Amino acid sequence: MASIFTRIVNGEIPCYKIAEDDRFFAFLDINPMTKGHTLVIPKREVDYIFDLTNDEVADMMVFAKKVAAAVEQAMPCKRIAVAVLGLQVPHAHIHLVPINSENDVDFKHEPLHLSPETFAEIQQKITSKL
Ligand code: 5GP
Prior knowledge:
It is built from three helices and five strands. It is of the alpha+beta class. A five-stranded antiparallel β-sheet has the order 1-2-3-5-4. A hairpin with a 3-residue loop joins strand 1 (17-20) and strand 2. Helix 2 packs across helix 3 (116-127). It is globular, with a radius of gyration of 14 Å. Guanosine-5'-monophosphate (5GP) is lined by residues 4, 13, 15, 27-31, 39, 85-89, 93.
């Protein structure tokens, strides 16, 4: 059965898309730690990031770098934190999280609860910087 992220890539589940190319896809995390929290995934469904090929890992990070630059411009912050956990969704993904302090990237914190309008506004701000 396709992962939830494959279903997002295929348009079967809605998302706030940020960017895509032939191999990678970026979209807003639905349970964001901070505004602009974005996930970058390979379209090829592989559970563990280090089971991707060397080229896929390298090229996914280059794709994430472009997305992170847009997130940083749209969501002023000290840094874009980069995290890989993969404990919930068995489809490799990189978290890009705008942070001003270590507290902003605590996965145990309650996520932000944003309205659809706010998600759409964040999506628009980030995609306008790409
Ligand atoms: P991890 O697997 O790295 O522990 O976490 C998976 C991440 O995917 C979580 O931050 C969670 O909020 C996000 N996530 C899970 N399901 C969906 C979904 O259907 N849509 C979006 N946009 N994000 C999701």
